[in-house]
Write a structure and sequence with these properties.
The complex is a heterodimer of chains A (167) and B (168).
Chain A lengths: L4 E9 L11 E2 L11 E3 L5 E7 L3 E3 L5 E14 L5 E10 L8 E3 L3 E4 L9 E14 L4 E10 L5 E14 L1
Chain B lengths: L4 E9 L5 E3 L3 E5 L6 E5 L5 E7 L11 E14 L5 E10 L8 E5 L1 E3 L12 E13 L4 E10 L5 E14 L1
The chains are: A mainly beta (167), B mainly beta (168).
C-alpha cells in the first residue's frame, strides 16, 4: 500500500458557508464579474463573521490534515472600517453532556491590522505560528471582527486553507 | 504508484451548510464563546434539519469514500425536547429530465430518541450505518435530524463530523 504526504494542499471555502449573525447580509455578484460574495450592507456596527475551515481530520496522531495558514479574500467598499481583526479559534468538541472547549492558536498576519481595514481589495494571510494536526475531535473557525463605519460595506469573496495532507 | 487506504478519516461539516425546515432558523453564536450554531427558535412543532454529508465520491466501485458514521453536536436549551431522531437519506441523482430517487439507509443512533437524546443538555450523538457504504459519484447523503419540540425548547446545532475510509 502506498502513502501520501503532500505539503502543498489547499481548500477553497466559499462565502456561502460563512457564518454571519450580525448585520444585513446578502449574496450578490462580486465586484468582478463571475465572482460571488457575502456582502454586508452599510451600517455603523460591529459584527462577527466566522469562517469554518473545511479540511479533513483523522483519529490517528500525525495523520490527516496539518493546518498551516488561512487566506481570506475580501473587499472594503466606500469607506474604511474602524477595525478589522482576526482570531483563529480551535474548537475541541465536547463529549455528550459536556461543552466544547475553545483555544486560540497564535498566528501572524499580513497585511497588518492597520493596513487590513482600508478601502481596497484585500488578501489577508494568517500564518499559524505552530501548525497543528487536526484530530477528529476538533475543528477550526476563523473569527473576523468587522467594525464598520456608517457607510462601510464589506464583500467576502472566500477563503483558502493551506495544509499538508498525510494519509 | 501506490494507493491510499485510510480508515481513520473524518470531515467536519459546519452549521452553515445545514438546511432547516419547519421553524425559524438563524445563524447564532454558540453557548460557548468562539463557537457558532444553527439555531432553531422555540416553537411547539417538529423541526427537520437536513445535514448534507460533504465528502468525495468516486465513479469506480469500492473506491473514494466509504461512509461509516456521522456525529452531530447539538444543544437543547431552556427545556428538553420530546424526541430527537436521526435518519439517513441516500439520494440518487436523476438523469436529465428524471427526478432524484431517495432511499433510507439503515442506521443506529447512540442516544435513545426519547430517553437520552432529548434532554436539556449538550449532546454528541453518533449515527452509525449498519452497513457502511461506498459513495458513488451519482449519489449523495443527507442526515435528517427530526426534533419534536415543546413550546420553550430551542435547538443549537454546532456542527457534524462524518467518519469514513478513504481509498484513492
Amino acid at each position: 500500500m502506498g502513502y501520501t504526504h503532500d505539503t502543498a494542499m489547499s481548500q477553497f471555502i466559499p462565502p456561502s458557508l460563512f457564518h454571519r449573525p450580525t448585520g444585513t447580509w446578502t449574496t450578490p455578484a462580486g465586484q468582478v464579474a463571475g465572482t460571488i460574495v457575502e456582502h454586508v450592507a452599510a451600517a455603523d456596527q460591529t459584527g462577527l463573521v466566522n469562517i469554518p475551515i473545511l479540511i479533513p481530520s483523522n483519529s490517528v496522531a500525525l495523520k490527516g490534515a496539518y493546518l498551516k495558514s488561512i487566506e481570506i479574500d475580501y473587499e472594503i467598499l466606500v469607506a474604511a472600517c474602524d477595525a478589522f481583526t482576526f482570531v483563529i479559534n480551535k474548537v475541541t468538541r465536547g463529549a455528550d453532556g459536556a461543552v466544547a472547549v475553545v483555544s486560540a492558536p497564535a498566528f501572524t498576519q499580513t497585511p497588518s491590522a492597520a493596513n487590513a481595514l482600508g478601502v481596497d481589495q484585500h488578501k489577508a494571510i494568517l500564518t499559524i505560528t505552530t501548525p497543528f494536526w487536526i484530530a477528529n475531535t476538533e475543528y477550526v473557525l476563523v473569527e473576523v471582527t468587522v467594525n464598520q463605519a456608517a457607510t462601510t460595506q464589506v464583500d467576502f469573496l472566500g477563503a483558502v486553507a493551506n495544509f499538508t495532507l498525510r494519509v | 504508484m501506490g494507493y491510499v487506504h485510510d480508515p481513520h478519516m473524518s470531515q467536519y461539516i459546519p452549521p452553515t451548510a445545514m438546511f432547516g425546515a419547519t421553524g425559524t432558523y438563524t445563524q447564532a453564536a454558540g453557548a460557548v464563546t468562539g463557537t457558532i450554531a444553527f439555531h432553531r427558535a422555540a416553537a411547539a412543532s417538529t423541526g427537520v434539519i437536513n445535514i448534507p454529508i460533504i465528502l468525495p465520491s468516486n465513479s469506480v466501485a469500492l473506491k473514494g469514500v466509504k461512509l461509516t458514521s456521522i456525529e452531530v453536536d447539538y444543544e437543547l436549551l431552556l427545556a428538553g425536547a420530546t424526541s430527537i431522531t436521526m435518519s439517513l437519506n441516500k439520494v440518487t441523482r436523476g438523469a436529465d429530465t428524471a427526478v432524484a430517487v431517495v432511499s433510507a439507509v439503515t442506521v443506529t443512533q447512540s442516544l435513545v430518541a426519547n430517553s437520552g437524546a432529548e434532554t436539556n443538555d449538550q449532546h454528541k450523538i453518533t449515527v452509525t450505518l449498519t452497513t457502511p457504504e461506498w459513495i458513488d459519484n451519482d449519489v449523495y447523503y443527507l442526515l435528517v435530524m427530526t426534533a419534536v419540540c415543546g413550546a420553550t425548547v430551542t435547538v443549537d446545532i454546532l456542527g457534524a463530523v462524518a467518519n469514513y475510509t478513504l481509498r484513492v
